[in-house]
Amino acid sequence: MLKLPLLKVFLVLVLLFAITSVRVQAQAAMQVKGRFLYDPKGAKVILRGVNEMFIWSSDLTGERTFPEIAKTGANVVRLVWLSSDENPKGSAANLDKIISNCIAQGMIPMPELHGATGNWSKLQQQVDYWVKPEVVAVLKKHEPYLLLNIANEVGGWEIKDEQFREAYTRAITQIRSTGLKCPLVIDGTGWGQNIDILQANGPYLIEQDPQKNLLFSVHMWWTAPDGAKTRIQNEIKESVAMNLPLIVGEFAPMGVGCKKYIDYKTIMEECLKNQIGWLAWSWGLQNNGDCALMDMTNDAQNGQFAGLVDWGLEVAVTDKYSIRNTAKKTRYFKKRNKNK
């Protein structure tokens, strides 16, 4: 007489387990809520990491470099990449390898395409790469750990709000139509420096995203006197007040050509105070040709933790607000580190 009720209980439990499993799978991507990023298990993630120009480097897929970056405690690396149409090295197979190698070190991969830098007319070309079936397959494979930076610094200062909204609404729609749910990262115009366009249009774009899963990235190449401490403080304060999910995707100690100073210490301090993520430019395996002072590691040991020097040593290790002293990895990402 007890067999039938027990069978019913068993079937109900199986059904509940199946529903829960489907729900977990459906949520298996990081998610932006308000102005914060959360891992697939719901833990807050404040990004701390570096950029590296892998597509032009001697370590294309990061086998040697990621373990060195991981020694800083970084929880994210922005992967400078190009579409396979612009560089055959940017194949889906190589993208798979570089993302896998980053995840293996317990760090979030943030691939970005560099081919439209400053060039508004090339945004669609970058989107076309991300929606290729073979590329989508790679992104879906790694989606729980992934941030997808659509394109680097697209467009100059001449781009208007209407253009920005229209083009990025189209980009979001195309990428989401592939089934990808991971956070999409959108750079400011003006070679990444235009935070005003992000503040003016970010809320609108979030509403256009069916996943409501966007981050906005300003590149603080704000040199003195325009990059004064008060400007950094005020722009961050404004972004926080409007609940904008903002990160600082690039910054360095000097501007292009090493001509003017950037107040990088204030950037680091204000980001910590306001729980805003940042990524320093750049690790230095591939040197910055226009300004060697941007390289975090020196020529003799470029790309190696032991080669950290000057501002690179400060931003990665020794400063009060450095990666080592402020970066945190959630349990979800720690489990992916093969060395732990």
Tell me the name of the CATH class. Answer: Alpha Beta
Percent range of helical residues:
25-40%
Q: Spans of 5+ residues with little confidence (pLDDT < 50)?
A: 17-26
Q: What is the fold-level CATH name, i.e. the topology?
A: TIM Barrel
Helix-strand topology string: HEEEEHEHEHHEHEHEHEHEHHH
Total strands: the figure is 11
**Count of separate DSSP helical elements:** 12
Number of domains: 1
Shape descriptor reads globular
Instruction: Report the span from N to C terminus.
Output: 52 Å
Strand content: 5-15%
Radius of gyration: 21 Å
Label the structural class. Answer: alpha/beta
CATH architecture: Alpha-Beta Barrel
- Quick one: CATH superfamily? Glycosidases
Protein name: Glycoside hydrolase family 5 domain-containing protein
Organism: Adhaeribacter aerolatus
Pfam families: Cellulase
GO molecular function, one term: beta-glucosidase activity
Summarize the structure in words.
With 340 residues, the chain is α/β, with parallel strands linked by helices. Helices cover 38% and strands 14% of the residues. It has 12 helices and 11 strands. α3 packs parallel to α5 (133-141) and α8 runs parallel beside α9 (264-273). The radius of gyration is 21 Å and the shape is globular.
SSE layout and pairing:
Elements: H1 3-26, E1 31-33, E2 36-38, E3 44-45, E4 48-52, H2 65-70, E5 76-81, H3 92-104, E6 108-113, H4 123-130, H5 133-141, E7 148-149, H6 161-176, E8 184-187, H7 195-208, E9 214-219, H8 229-241, E10 246-250, H9 264-273, E11 277-280, H10 311-318, H11 323-326, H12 331-334
Parallel strand pairs: 4-5, 4-11, 5-6, 7-8, 8-9, 9-10, 10-11
Antiparallel strand pairs: 1-2, 2-3
